[in-house]
Amino acid sequence: MAPPGRFADGLRLESHKARAMRHRLRAAAAPACAVIALDQGRGDADPVVGPGDRVFVGTPIARPASGVAATIHSPVCGIVREIAQRETAAPAGSGPCIVIDSDGSDARDPRIAAPALESLGPEDLIARILEAGIVGLGGAAYPTGVKLATARERSVEHLVLNGAECEPWICCDDALMRERADDILLGTRIMMVTCGARRATIAVEDDKPEAIEALRRASSALGDDRLEVVALPALYPAGAEGPLLLAVTGLEVPHDAFPPSIGLLCQNVGTAAAVASWARSGEPCISRVVTVTGSGVGEPANLEARIGTPLAALVAECGGHRGEPRRLIAGGSMTGTALATDDVALTKAMNCILVATALDLVPRGEEMPCIRCGDCASACPAGLLPQQLLRAVTSGVTAEAGRYGLADCIECGCCDYVCPSRIPLTSRFRAARAEARALAADRQRAEAARRRFEQHQRRLAMQAEAERQAFEEARRLARGDGAGRSDP
Predict the structure, then answer these.
(1) Which of 141, 209, 238, 438 lies at a CB distance of 3.0 to 4.6 Å from 41, suitable for a disulfide?
(2) Alpha-carbon span 355 to 323, nearest angstrom
């Protein structure tokens, strides 16, 4: 167990946040046409509206189809034009979206009202947070209410707020912490009530002194000794859940478990601000703060933008394209997803839009054989042996890859970054993890089918036995032996 405040491994990366942080956080214009993906990062939700329906700002338009999706609300007031396949940031590259034409009025749903927090118990708060569609805004997009409910069931003691933001281009959380520290603390205290935590730590990298000062000033004004703000070394990937919790608490999350199993819960500072926004106004999660940056953007900035806003409109808000953009990335340079077009719309999971030119991209070069230098193992924050993992996944030995900790890979990209042979390790591991999940799902379906077959066979056997007994009873009655008597 590592002592608090220490990271076992990681990288010191050159920061590219200064240009975007020159400007204060500002609101982007509401989109004239909002395109809201039914998959906001954790699976599809089911539409509850159809073409021609009139919706208001905050009207529910889709509800969870699975346990890890979240309720989706309209970000504009207008008419639903269609539900159709559109380009999205999902791994498949496209997915079903609800398209809403705004009427420009921005009228709120009349059912929206600020909650009476003092009259709500923890379970009620969790239900309301679920209904508000609030998710992890650090990029995971996991429903906050589900995490809080699980944490409450496990009686967590310690809530850790993630303000590390270690990706070299992303600074939306930094802007939030500087300008809305009070909201972050309010959201933190509400989440402490819901999950039952007795203390909370807001962890921020030490290259964000203004954010740290703003949070400490706000915390001091509250006078709540359960809250603590700590500065961590600016080391990538400090913002990953496992390394962050290890650095703050000294506790390591078991490889086959989640933080609540050891009394911890981790939430993003943006999520806390979203909880506070809901608590103040009752408005659901219809917007998020996003960093629009890169050498291909005229004036990088942090914008509070409505979910469903086309990325092209957000780039235009920041001075439009400049130079010769080579790549559009949703997320950071280390863990983001390359997009084919800026027609894609903003989702709850998207914390950065990186418009990269040749100035921002380091050519990977031709892949060469592994020289077993061990640099990848030295850099891996999860303590894995990437070179051994690579051998297992390239040979197709899933069980061996599992033994080497494939499921524990956090896909941070550190091994790629340091590999002198330019091997795309992370993409290989990501594909292998997806294949392993698919195989596990197949096994679960096969096991469920086997159980259904065995249950069916048992029902048939019971039915056959009941029919046999009925037949024997009928024979006895026909012979005049009387019901219930046995043959001599």
Answers:
(1) 141
(2) 10
The encoded tokens of residue 354 equal 């990186």
Task: Taking the CA atoms of 312, 315, 321 and 327 in sequence, report the sign of the dihedral they define.
Answer: negative
Task: Please name the amino acid found at residue 454.
Answer: E
Cα 302 to Cα 290: distance, rounded to the nearest angstrom: 6
Which pairing describes strands 227-232 and 301-306: parallel, antiparallel, or unpaired? unpaired
Whether the Cβ atoms of residue 211 and residue 229 lie closer than 8 Å to each other: no
Residues 48-86: b if buried by 16+ CB within 10 A, e if exposed: ebeeebebbbbbbbbebeeeebbbbbbbbbbebeebeeb
Q: Is residue 457 part of a domain?
A: yes
- Output the CA torsion sign for 300, 306, 307, 313: negative
Counting the structural domains of the chain, the total is: 2
* Residue-wise pLDDT tens digits, 73-132: 999 999 999 999 999 988 778 899 999 999 999 999 999 999 999 999 999 999 999 999
Q: Can you tell me the distance from the alpha carbon of 182 to that of 198, in angstroms, rounded to the nearest whole number?
A: 19
Q: Please tell me which of 177-186, 333-342, 380-389 the model is most confident about, judged by mean pLDDT.
A: 177-186
- pTM metric for this prediction: 0.87
Answer left, alpha or beta for residue 5, where phi above 0 means left and psi between -120 and 50 means alpha.
Answer: left
Q: What ranges in 122-254 are assigned the alpha helix state H?
A: 122-131, 144-153, 172-179, 181-195, 209-222, 241-249
First-to-last C-alpha distance (Å) of the chain: 76
